TrEMBL record:
InterPro entries: DUF2069_membrane. It comes from Oleiagrimonas citrea. Keywords: Membrane, Transmembrane, Transmembrane helix. The chain crosses the membrane at residues 20-38, 44-63, 70-90, 96-116. This is DUF2069 domain-containing protein.
Amino acid sequence: MSRDTLTLSPRQRRARLTGYLGWLGLIALQPIWHAWLAPDPHEPLSAVLILALLPLLLPLLAIRRPARALLWAGIVALFYFSHGVAEAWSLPNERMLALAQVALSLLLIFALGAGVQRRRKA
């Protein structure tokens, strides 16, 4: 466990765990959606998966600093939120998958907000 993790309050630990669950959920959803439940027959599967997964995997470069990795995952999740809203609006057959992406993105983003600790004035 890193020193950063040891100084977290229980609320911050729960928020961080919730953020990780949202991030992992987004990572798991992409192959389920694009390769199994609703593959696009006009696009190569490998290209779709690379485009869908690569942004979610980039925050792993900062995993030594969990707070920073989660922050970057939250920033990336804004794109997935927007994509999910657009897909839910335009593709009725994929609406439930898109709404799942929106929900996971919001889970991650709200977890980041819940984990913020205000500093007390001296």
